[in-house]
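Quick note —
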Amino acid sequence: MATERDDSLQSISVQLNGSSNYAYWSYVMRKFLIGKRIWGYVSGTFVKPTNSATENYAKELETWEVNNSKIITWINNSVSQSIGFQLAKYDSASQVWEHLKRLYVQSNFAKQYQLEIDIRALQQHSMSIQEFYSAMTNLWDQLALTESAELQAFTPYTDRQEQQRLVQFLMALRNDFEGLRGSILHRTPLPSVDSVVNELLAEEAQCPKLLKKEQPYQPPQWRPPQSKYRNFQHTSQSSNVVAATAVSPSATPGMVHSGSNMSDLVEQFQKFLASQPNAMSVSPNVGLSSAGSSGVGSVSTPKLSFSDVYYIPNLTLSLASVSQLCDSAPTVDLSSFRLNLSSSKFYLWHSRLGHVSSPRLKYLASTGVLGSLQPNNISDCCGCKLAKFSALPFPKSVSISKAPFDLVHSDVWGPSPIATKSGSKYYVSFIDDYTRYCWIFLMKHHSEFFGIYCHFRALVNTQYNSVIKCFRCDLGGEYTSNKFSELLSSDGTVHQAFCTDTPEQNGVAERKHRHILETARSMLLSASAPSEFWGEAVKTAVHVINKISYSVTSGLSPFERMYGHPPDYSSLRVFGSTCFVLLPHVERSKLTPRSAICVFLGYGDGQKGYRCYNPSTRKLYISRHVVFLEHLPFYSIPSDSQNITRSDLIHIDPFVADIDGPNDFNFENFRDEAPHTPPPAHDPLQIGDPQPQPPHLPRRYPQRIHKSTQLPDFVYNIYSTYFASALTSLHGLSEPSSYQEAVLDPLWQ
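Predicted structure written out below.
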């Protein structure tokens, strides 16, 4: 008779040790109980029968108690003994499960904080991709347990969480995967973490050297003086011992290496001893039987010599003490680097001729003037390396971003020798690598950078619905502060900083600086504007540069590449030109001028208007009610023309229609404000008494001036010779009527 097999002792292979593996343990146990079709006893679906009046009460109660006891037994068999003692006070499986959940699933902020620190501190180091992915997944799962079910069901949050996990995983990889990591970051859309792990596993399988586990660096510790016989046993106290494993034979015998490269030296010893067995001498055993030593001797090579070396046949690793190697102070042969008695004659003549280059020395040797001289390799000359070493060439950059804000370049310019009106001496630029669109912000001090970046970061997030994936900059203090690094890390932004004194690695930002400054300098000099307006000039230059097409952006302007439509060129005006601004109501009355003559300094930030500055009142106006005299730079007007009248300006600019308002202006009733010399009492050319003049009667109706298509008569003799010649040249110019016509005119290019 077949008996039913008792499976009450069956359990899962995972043992619960605490909060570190509770997520994985609960997952396996839940699937195990679901497979046994008794998960309802834990979730509360199957409750203990309480109605004894039912027909099958006794049978149902027995079934419930049997299954409940099985679950409690399975749980106790899969937890540590210290945790099992806490479960003895509970009678139902649901109570046991809830207790463990309350104990290890905490939603408090302190646990979340600690998990976030652990995630950011975790690095791959010597772990394989599979081991590292398992460790990272364990932390992610624990962090997910602290989140509510409503938050995990919110799709935008889960998508954002997946991107953040991908960035965290890529940032913690070893530098061996830098090439694959860069290609993944530039993909659109970003792949999932699982697909990235699959690619990394394939890359790891194709490159066996990636599987090599590097020994983590351990700082040397103090130790008391040792006896004559030094023990090389690998214990927990010998932190200064380095294990030698199989590495590539890149080093040459006789060269001393430190740190992880000591394994190269040991490998060279092994190869040398294999080829020359007599190089190692071993004496009889001197009492090291506990370590399995067969003898102690010395290792000798043509360039290195070590004494008190123990030979232990059963030891699978070759061990070398770094501190003892330093104490023994081995010598290094530098004959190939410095001139000595063993140096070649070719190297001697190289030194005699002031370390002349090898091609020139070979030419002299071929002519026979140096005697019989055999050319040798002198590329390792120490003096030439120290004195003639120059920067290595830079390859042409071939990296291309796939979408806006995949890569953002940044740099700080300054300090300026002259501060702006607001006191700024610096500016910081942000350049999107994909569109080449540029943003610029003025700064008074470097300390303002962090607040500016937070503003720019919010601008990208809100206006463009994107995040900065990679941020490239230099090693300035504003970019390397802990606060800024923590902000980039919290956003999942990869921080790329180029090497010291290597601005070529940030070529996009450096070339943009040059373009901005050259444009701003041209604007200031052509307008004869003071240097204190350099801040307005660079902001205007960036506004214009963003609307100019470039070959790197496929013939499109950065504006069009960013926003998807061509920019509007009709609102552009000449920087530093003269303009009239309609005064606000609070600054004018019925008898005062309605406009002020100002200098045009750029375009409003966040306001659809022009920035116009009045030097006489030191006020800055941002207005759309502006009339421009683009052919007349404001600072080309003579300093004694502050009392210039409107009629004078109408004569200055031949384009009357640009000045006249909706109402006609009566020239006869307008008098110059300049003082006039009164006429003499008697005309010397008039004979006899002057005839009385009839009184001038005012007109009943004001006389209307009719506009003429001809230019008004111009009188030059009322101005200085220099100013009159300038006006003459201005009157000979004609303004283009369209952008295409302006492009063809050399004066407007």
